[in-house]
Structure formats: structure tokens, C-alpha cells
Amino acid sequence: MSLDAQHQDTLIEWLSAHTPQLHDGAYAYLCAMQNLDAPHVRMRPAIYIDGNKWCALYGKNIQDGVAGFGDSPEAACAEFDKAWLKGLMD
């Protein structure tokens, strides 16, 4: 199938106008796919407020489990991921 010149121009114009959105969508998809393998996604720690910080805790308590703390649930999960991966390296 080939496009005539008018349709080619229309397609090029559309792609030029929408490339940033297509790129943003692809980037968001790749980020989401990477996030699916994150320790906090796989291990599903409890996430709750502990004092003035958010805590992501896997296990019965902070001393025996793996925990991450942050100013938001996302920050706590990021710290949890670091702690989990550090535990694998030790």
C-alpha cells in the first residue's frame, strides 16, 4: 500500500504534531514496566504513617523486617526498594 503525496503530507504533519505525546506515552509505559519489577511491587509491604514519616514495612516489625521511610508513600517505597536490594547484597 502506498500513500499519495497529500496523504503522506497529512501523515507527516500529524506525526510532527503528536511526536511529543507519543514519546511521553512510550516513556510512561517503559517506566511502568520497570516499576512492575520493583521490590515494593513484588513484595507488597504494608504502607502507613509512622510518626511524621511514611513507612513501607515488609515483616512483623522494623527490627526484623525490611523498611523504608519517606515524606510520601512513594518516597517510602523508594527507600524500601533500596533497603531490600541492599539486603540482597549483604
- Sheet with the most strands: spatial strand order: 1-2-3
Averaging pLDDT over every residue, what do you get? 84
**Beta-strand residue fraction:** 15-25%
Strands, total number: 3
Number of domains: 2
- The coarse silhouette is elongated
Ends apart, CA distance between termini: 58 Å
Helix content: 55-70%
Give unreliable regions as ranges. none
Largest sheet: 3 strands, antiparallel
Count of individual helical segments:
3
Question: H/E element string?
Answer: HHEEEH
Determine the structural class based on helices, strands and strand pairing.
alpha+beta
Cα-based radius of gyration, to the nearest Å: 22 Å
Overview of the structural elements:
By secondary structure, the protein is α+β, with helices and mostly antiparallel strands. It has 2 domains: 1-36, no CATH class; 44-89, no CATH class. The protein contains 3 helices and 3 strands. It has a 3-stranded antiparallel beta sheet. A hairpin with a 2-residue loop joins strand 1 (46-50) and strand 2.
